[in-house]
Design goal:
0% strand; single chain; mainly alpha
């Protein structure tokens, strides 16, 4: 049996690189969630549209994206779009575009369920004080819907953060890519991957704790 000699000095010497990569991954997840939230809200209303063409188009988008592996979508956007003349995106922009489109499909279903579970009292109260339809959506329906769906949005953010590891496939210097590069340069396999795994775990757990407090603060009383 071959003994493995641990050398954690490699990790401490590259600690700044790990933290910068972690920050990039968090940034990618947050930006993608924000964009995906806007797109998902539009898609949710499209899914509920009385016009069949609009609702069917939104349904097709959601089903196609949700049933296609994210890694395949990343490759399609990064390697495929240049083949049809779209060269403006660099690797980070193409990944944000992909992850945002991916997030939008899931956010659509989250928001659609939130709109469907909206307590009737809120809508009736908004009508009673004379709010117009667009005012009811802006000031009552959408704010309450966001509060109802906060737990699902929180889970989606954590999932997107973990999904940023797939950006390593197109050489985006996030945490997985950085760990792989340090491993390749130092041959410290266990140290690099244990450190990356621990950073993912701790960060996801801290995000979960923070978001649970936000959820408790803004929970809707039914």
């Amino acid at each position: 049996m071959i003994a493995y000699n641990f050398n954690w000095d490699v990790i401490w010497r590259n600690w700044d690189a790990f933290l910068l990569a972690l920050a990039l991954g968090l940034g990618l997840a947050v930006v993608s969630l924000l964009i995906g939230t806007v797109l998902g809200l539009i898609l949710a209303y499209a899914r509920m549209s009385p016009w069949r063409v609009i609702s069917w188009t939104a349904w097709c988008y959601v089903e196609i994206i949700r049933n296609t592996p994210l890694l395949l979508l990343i490759f399609f956007v990064y390697f495929g779009l240049p083949e049809i003349g779209i060269y403006a995106l660099d690797k980070i922009e193409s990944f944000i575009l992909t992850l945002s489109a991916y997030a939008a499909a899931y956010m659509c279903e989250i928001f659609r369920s939130g709109l469907a579970s909206m307590p009737r009292a809120y809508g009736e109260g908004a009508k009673a004080i004379g709010l117009r339809p667009w005012q009811r959506q802006r000031f009552v329906v959408i704010p309450v819907m966001f509060r109802i769906t906060l737990p699902a949005i929180s889970n989606n953010l954590i999932s997107l953060f973990k999904d940023t590891s797939l950006a390593a496939a197109i050489a985006v210097p996030e945490l997985t890519f950085t760990a792989r590069q340090i491993n390749a340069n130092t041959f410290r396999v266990i140290e690099c991957w244990v450190t990356a795994s621990a950073l993912y775990l701790v960060t996801a757990y801290l995000i979960a704790i923070l978001l649970r407090r936000v959820e408790a603060r803004y929970a809707v009383v039914r």
